[in-house]
């Protein structure tokens, strides 16, 4: 296979590569820079943190024309490919949700599908993904096709929009599900902008990530998938985040408490992007969990 036929997943790492690996997975339409504020506050003397750009995000390759990004298969396979590449026998995954359950879902599904590869799971601001009732599933399939067709038609006649840095920064802030500080937005843009001329930029992310394909299953089936998560789990939610109001939240929390080797759940000050805006609140919880003797690495 030639290099041009391969998908490339750029990453950023912290710490000594010989230390215990921690694979960090960002959220929908974000990138590896989402961890730039949090990881410097974590114990890098014991861990090697690797933050990847998922396909279609940040500096990573885009999927070929005509395809959509599927959460349950494509991104889980991506994570497994990374684990195999580094020959990690076991890996702790920090999964961060930013947008539409992407990072958190990938972590839940990966830990359930490959329990032998995951020692600990850390999820920030996602309970789960709410699924449509089964009688809407055919409508959802049609929706995915129509969005892809619309995107392809526009791509044939239009070039990607070009923005000044100030305009791009404004879009990065206003396009969030909750408040994002200017500093945090600038951090994300370090891996999401490509300069094409003097003070003109295009976004790097694939616009198809706006309509990711989530599993077309019922809430009951989805809960059954999540019941496979058995490793120690830390779940941190922001008290200003709408995502803590997941319809089956109490049922999910009880299931994790029953099934996981250890389950820690915290609701702390902050919105959806609390790890970016307030990393000093999140870092002690993550550090304590990583270093916990009860579920020691």
From TrEMBL:
Keywords: Hydrolase, Membrane, Transmembrane, Transmembrane helix. GO terms for cellular component: membrane. Residues 21-279 form the AB hydrolase-1 domain. One of its GO terms (molecular function) is hydrolase activity. The keyword Transmembrane applies. Signal peptide: none annotated. The chain crosses the membrane at residues 91-111. Belongs to the AB hydrolase superfamily. This is (California timema) hypothetical protein.
């Amino acid at each position: 296979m030639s290099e041009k036929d391969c998908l490339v997943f750029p990453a950023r790492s912290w710490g000594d590569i010989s230390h215990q690996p921690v694979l960090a997975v960002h959220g929908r339409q974000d990138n590896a820079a989402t961890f730039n504020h949090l990881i410097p506050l974590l114990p890098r003397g014991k861990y090697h943190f690797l933050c990847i750009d998922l396909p279609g995000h940040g500096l990573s390759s885009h999927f070929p024309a005509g395809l959509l990004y599927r959460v349950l298969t494509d991104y889980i396979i991506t994570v497994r490919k990374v684990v195999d590449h580094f020959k990690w026998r076991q890996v702790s995954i920090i999964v961060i949700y930013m947008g539409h359950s992407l990072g958190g879902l990938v972590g839940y599904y990966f830990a359930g599908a490959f329990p032998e590869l995951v020692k600990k799971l850390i999820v920030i601001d996602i309970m789960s993904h709410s699924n449509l009732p089964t009688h809407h599933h055919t409508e959802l399939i049609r929706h995915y096709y129509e969005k892809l067709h619309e995107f392809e038609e526009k791509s044939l006649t239009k070039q990607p929009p070009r923005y000044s840095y100030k305009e791009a920064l404004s879009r990065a802030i206003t396009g969030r599900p909750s408040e994002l500080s200017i500093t945090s937005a600038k951090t994300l843009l370090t891996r999401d902008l490509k300069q094409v001329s003097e003070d003109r930029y295009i976004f790097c992310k694939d616009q198809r990530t706006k309509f990711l394909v989530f599993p077309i299953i019922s809430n009951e089936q989805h809960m059954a998938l999540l019941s496979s998560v058995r490793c120690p789990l830390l779940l941190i939610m922001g008290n200003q985040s709408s995502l803590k109001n997941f319809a089956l939240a109490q049922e999910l929390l009880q299931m994790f408490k029953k099934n996981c080797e250890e389950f820690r759940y915290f609701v702390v000050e902050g919105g959806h992007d609390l790890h970016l805006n307030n990393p000093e609140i999140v870092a002690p919880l993550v550090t304590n969990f990583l270093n916990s003797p009860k579920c020691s690495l």
